[in-house]
Amino acid sequence: MRAMRVPAWPVKAGFGPGAATWVLLQQVVVRGLVAVKFLVIGRILGPSAIGLASVALLAVAIAEALSDTGLAQAVIQGPTPPTRDQTGSVWTTLATRGLLIALLLVACAPLMDAQFHLGGALGLVQLAALLPLLRGLASPAYFIAQRERRFQHIAGIEIAAACVDCTVGVGLALTGMGPYALLLGMMVGEAFKSVLTWTTLAPRPPIRLRWSGIGHYVGFSRWIWASSVIILITNQFDKVVVGKLLGPAQLGAWQMSSKLAQMLLADAAIAMSQYLFPTFAAHHRGGAQAAARLFRIYLGVTALGLALVVIVLRFAAEPLFSLVLGAAWLSAVPLFRIFVINMAISALNSVLASYVRAVGDARAVTVASLIQVATLAVSVPIATQHWGVMGIAWSMTLGLASGAGWMLYRVWRKR
């Protein structure tokens, strides 16, 4: 039947449930709200408070990456959808993981305080521990909705959660909650999102402890886990070094310049990967050539657009920081000019990773991350010795480019 075919045109126009329009709308609204939240809170609190919150979120990122099951991607990529019992096993696994991460973070809070100069702000790390638990309690029906490309529904959930996050976070910052405002906003937003996945999406998994029936996902998901661990090293290495050696204030400046570059460049491609991964996978199930043709179109358009944006942002960096964040943040401008290049490469990497995972080559993403780690291991000591913190930033650029080169090579080999 015609209705069952995957459309040949790369973007399904209009406002149907599976249209890319919903992914783009979600990107604009959600990223816009995230930008408003971080910029407003950053202007109110300053670099030091943002640095304290960043340490707490860094702890969450480390714990989540080290325990990534890869089940979400495996459900989306698999040749057949999971049964109701299998979704129950997925939920049990993810909820258990969230609980264990939360307990680990609470136990490690004193260590984080000592290593990152939190000044006794243990409550930040302990509060952040609730984030992985709330995420783990969400319904696996969300992954099935992504697999089936129900982008309209997904966009509604993400936009509603982002509205709650932004409203609560900014409101609490204005009332004097300090760095806790950022974390509490995220917590309430994640809790609301988890509730929506249970109340608005089907099929609902059975709520009982069950781990069996999902062994066939392990072959694919183990590469997702390995990739997550390696990406953790590449993405969080800089924050660990800056936070430990220079303290929260310098970490806040580093984090805000990185975050602003990410919001302006990489977030669009990362969000678009929610459309690209299941779409590439669907095309690949229908024929490898169709998926390859679609990938080439997206990669070319993305590369051209990113190049133009990078040029504009590098020229506009200083007035942008002065206008948006204020004079207290101008020291971060040189870093921002490097980060826009880094985030542009990251955006290209998200398109590349979506494709190679969709065609079943999750190993290629892991190897790309290993190449990036090796590049950093060689270049960071030399670059730091000659150029200090700017050298670390340029080393990240070299590492990202090397990973992208490997994935492009793998794509070319599959032609």
Task: Summarize the structure in words.
This protein has helices at residues 20-45, 47-66, 71-77, 84-116, 122-128, 130-136, 141-147, 151-174, 180-200, 218-246, 248-286, 288-324, 333-358, 362-413. It is mainly alpha-helical and 415 residues long. The chain folds into 2 domains: 15-213, no CATH class; 218-415, no CATH class. Mean pLDDT is 82; it is low at 1-12.
Descriptive terms for the model:
415 residues; 14 helices; transmembrane helix; cell membrane; membrane; 2 domains; disordered N terminus; mainly alpha; PST family polysaccharide transporter; 81% helix
What is this structure, in a nutshell?
Helix content is 81%, strand content 0%.
SSE topology:
Blueprint: H1 20-45, H2 47-66, H3 71-77, H4 84-116, H5 122-128, H6 130-136, H7 141-147, H8 151-174, H9 180-200, H10 218-246, H11 248-286, H12 288-324, H13 333-358, H14 362-413
Helix pairs in contact: 1-8, 1-11, 2-4, 2-5, 2-10, 2-11, 3-7, 4-5, 4-6, 6-9, 8-9, 10-11, 10-14, 11-12, 11-13, 12-13, 13-14
Radius of gyration, in angstroms, nearest whole number = 21 Å
The general outline is globular
Report the helical percentage.
over 70%
Q: Provide the domain count.
A: 2
For the record, give the distance between the C-alpha atoms at the N and C termini, rounded to a whole number. 29 Å
- Number of helices in the DSSP assignment: 14
Percent range for β-strand residues? under 5%
Element order: H for helix, E for strand: HHHHHHHHHHHHHH
Give a short account of the largest sheet. Answer: none
* Strand segment count: 0
Low-confidence stretches: 1-12
Overall structural class, as computed from helix and strand content, comes to: mainly alpha
Mean pLDDT: 82
Protein name: PST family polysaccharide transporter
Transmembrane segments: 48-67, 88-112, 118-143, 260-277, 297-317, 329-352, 364-383, 389-409
Organism: Paraburkholderia tropica
Membrane topology: Multi-pass membrane protein
